[in-house]
Amino acid sequence: MAKKKEVTVEDKLRALYDLQLIDSRIDEIKSTRGELPLEIEDLEGDIEGLNKRLENFENDIKNLNGSISDKKQAIEESKSLMKKYTEQQKNVRNNREFDSLSKEVEFQELEIQLAEKNIKEFKVKIAHKGEVIEGSKEKLADLELHLKHKQGELSEIMSETEKEEKVLNKKSEEFSKLIEDRLLQAYTRIRTNVRNGLAVVAVERGAAAGSYFTIPPQRQMEIAMRKKIITDEHSGRILVDIELATEEKLKMSKFIS
Q1: Same fold, 9-32+180-252 and 36-161
Q2: Tell me, what's the pLDDT at 5?
Q3: DSSP label of 215
Q4: Which ranges in the chain belong to alpha helices (H)?
Q5: Which long-range contacts (CB under 8 A, 24 or more apart) does 166-169 make?
Q6: Distance from CA of residue 213 to its chain's centroid?
Q7: pLDDT at 4
Q8: Assigned CATH class of 36-161
Q9: Domain-by-domain residue ranges, the chain?
Q10: Segment 217-229, tens digit of pLDDT
Q11: Cα 234 to the chain's mean position, in Å?
Q12: Which residue from 23, 107, 137, 203 puts its CA 20 to 30 A from 31's CA?
């Protein structure tokens, strides 16, 4: 039985740097979309909120119209009672009964006046809400048009990069499986914590790429020997020598264009 090939530290460093190259290209592709995904998300949120607001206003109008119907019915009932009490006054036996019925008539007149006042108030509210609805519908139409435009922009960008991104995501998954969990977790953590997503960088001109802090010569020698995983004490990034980085960039160029 053939002996299983031992995975060296150098193998791990190469796998990590390859993964970094792939993920960096995915980051570049995503950056071409700029703020479009967030803008689209915000627009969709605004449209959803506006639709909800319109629904609430329309329900308010429906309820106000229902209240107007109720008040109109109450007015008819009051008129019916007034007619009834007026007829009863013709057959009263004394002034006390007449006065009592007169008060009932007056009360119904007040009820009618109050109901008519309420109806006017409800109609004013309906008119106001109607104006707000019209304005909101115009705003909604503008937002939907803007959203369609932004979605078109994003779709155009994605159609140009979708195939490449799909291939790269698949490769990223494949290379991730070649790296032990502990290292992969460290890589992911560093990528999350640094601004540009670079968790593995080469040592260039005596310093980690993108850094101004010089790495001591002895440390640089250790990195070049590829015998252990070494991180930058300032940024926490995993360090590789420039020769390894150049070799891997050349090797990975068929995946990354």
Answers
A1: yes
A2: 60
A3: P
A4: 9-32, 36-89, 95-177, 181-193, 217-225, 242-252
A5: 167/255, 168/22, 168/25, 168/26, 168/29, 168/255, 168/256, 169/26
A6: 39
A7: 47
A8: mainly alpha
A9: 9-32+180-252, 36-161
A10: 999 999 999 999 9
A11: 34
A12: 203
Dihedral sign for Cα atoms in the order 81, 87, 90, 91: negative
pLDDT value for 210: 75
Q: What is the DSSP code string of 70-121?
A: HHHHHHHHHHHHHHHHHHHHTT-SSHHHHHHHHHHHHHHHHHHHHHHHHHHH
With a cut of 90, say whether residue 252 has pLDDT above it. Answer: no
Tokens at 43, concatenated:
């627009």
CATH of domain 9-32+180-252: 1.10.287.1490
Q: How far apart are CA 140 and CA 154, in angstroms?
A: 21
In tens, the pLDDT along 170-207 reads: 888 888 888 889 999 999 999 998 888 999 999 988 88
